[in-house]
């Protein structure tokens, strides 16, 4: 059984922040890396991916091509603004596999990325970035497998009888990634991810807002997970404060996240996607409140490593 850990490289929502009041929890936007043995799965490419990418390049083996797989929850700026500054994307010896949701506006996930990384919004076009790049539309009808000894992902339609012969042998699967589409985040929803490997399960559910009696689909998706990383952008007071409540913005409160953790019977909860105005002192208070609701809770901070 492989060791499993999660490293938080960025945990802010909306936009990056700096200043002494954010030193302890950090100010980079969403990027999480799940490590299972020697394999790393990257979740989102906010500004936190930039420093992580630099470390990959510095520590790269000249004789071993750098290969990584990235899974995007959605294409709002805070979750992909680090991608055009991710050092491996400029390296001709790198291979990147990029998975994300297709939305109604563009014909593919790749097309939505190309729409942003181009003039006049960015000086380098996507095709001018020299890494070998493979884009995939990824829906909840599919599963991505990573096989032993092979860095390349294998995407299959796992839930259709006609495609069962494409499934790799179970004893060859090292890691698998599942996705679930959430519909409470404007305007095109969000993808949740479940990473299974090394005898552990990690669920990543950012940019989501709860429902009366809890999000039953997400609870079933996350059922029994060892770690649930869940949006908790707002306190109850912020969520309902007049004259501009944030209810309906597609983000959760501490209580929504904790109630989902209870409903799904997960082992540990990590609160994520902090509001850019939330200071270190405020997030200390968030941690205290959250542990009253779900005892095994940690509040995400840049650089945090969670042994799963």
Task: Describe the protein's architecture and organization.
With 308 residues, this protein is α/β, with parallel strands linked by helices. The protein has one domain: 4-Layer Sandwich (Metallo-beta-lactamase, Chain A), CATH 3.60.15.10. Helices cover 19% and strands 28% of the residues. It has seven helices and 15 strands. The strands form two sheets. The protein has an eight-stranded mixed sheet. Strands 6-5-4-3-2-1-15 form a seven-stranded mixed sheet, covered by helices on one side.
Largest sheet, in brief, is: 8 strands, mixed
The residue fraction in helices comes out at 10-25%
**Mean pLDDT score:** 95
CATH architecture: 4-Layer Sandwich
- Could you name the ranges where pLDDT drops below 50 across 5 or more consecutive residues? none
List the helices and strands in order.
EEEHEHEHEEEEEEHEHHEHEE
The figure for the number of domains is 1
CATH-defined fold name: Metallo-beta-lactamase, Chain A
How many helices in DSSP terms? 7
End-to-end separation in angstroms reads 12 Å
Q: What is the strand tally?
A: 15
Overall geometry: globular
Alpha-beta content class: alpha/beta
